[in-house]
Amino acid sequence: MSTSQHPDILIIGGGILGCAIASYLSQQPGLSVTVVERHGLGEQTTSYAAALLTRVRPYRELTGLVMETFQAIERLSDQVSEPLPLRKVGSLQVSATTAGRQQLEQTAERAAEVGVIAHSITANEAVERAPWLALSPDTAALWLPDDGYIDPYALCMAYAAQARKQGVRFRLRQTVTDILQQGSTVTGVRLASGERIEAGAVIDAAGPWSTALARQLGVNLGMAPVRSHYWISAPHGRIPVDAPMTILPDSGAYARPEVGGLLFGLRDQQAVFAHPDQLPDSLHDYCFDVDPTGEEALAGGYEALHTQCPLLDELQLAHYVSNVSSYTPDGFYLLGAMPGVDGFFAATGCSGAGIGMSGGIGRLMAELVTGQTPFVSPERFRLDRFGTIDSYDLAFIRRCAEARARKRTG
Where would I find the FAD dependent oxidoreductase domain in this sequence (predicted)? Predict the structure, then answer.
């Protein structure tokens, strides 16, 4: 089948990263961009995210990315009839352990460096803000009033709307089956229909499916599909709808209000992952082979979370939400070009932070693809930083799953 178009840049994936990248690329004059998505926009991993937006991250580059997302939300809100549903309720970090207190101290130091408001408060003041907590008097607490959370689907749609307005073409319910290559240069993609779309550059932003696509080029992306999940309780009188997010490094958990109930997430204590080449076309109703209902994870993490959140005993669980996150062994993302493969870029492996980092990743990828000076250093995100790997190797996949179990931030 003959080629129907020749965009300068083709993006595979219409989740929040693909749409954010398209939004930022659309601001470049004279650049034609096409997004190809197998389903509808934001229907797969994006819509299942807890979407915590914390401004201060463990590294300067990560803080820069998430700060850009907050700025993007402000800009996008100015362009629509109703502001985006950013719930600016603040975040509360609490810890009674030495390691956790050090994390809070480091967060406060980084906040001061970048001009983010952060106040140390007492345990009693923390409980007043988040009544589901019960804290010992010696518990350290850090309050960041400008943090919040957002409806991830709404943010994805806002990126897409701006991109469309600027001329980006979206091809929905079209499946990319092959990335086309001549020698060491990527030249476009082939769709399931047989149609070829030639492009000056291809960006692989297909979430957990990115790995299989990249392997066609001999590129092994350093990430794996790992379970990410949370629970939502029925409404309870002690959960104010405007209460803050709480990040609990002592138990590796987080919690925030959700329609009168409590949404809380726990880290898996065992490796729960999928093999990259065994993912279904759609993740709706997808269950992992290990602990498919999350009951083992809940039982394993319950006691530690209950120590600071005894209200768990009174909550009636209403929903369990499980989906796939793409984790790397070091928790940094996979952003940029692959040395030795011209015209190929990847934007994936966000390790549970894709919503919060979306604006920053959109801007960084747009700068890298168009040869501009990046606003944050891309070195930590290099695709080749793990050396020679096999992204289908079970030992490597377990390394990625273990990285999620070690995560202690929101």
Answer: 8-368
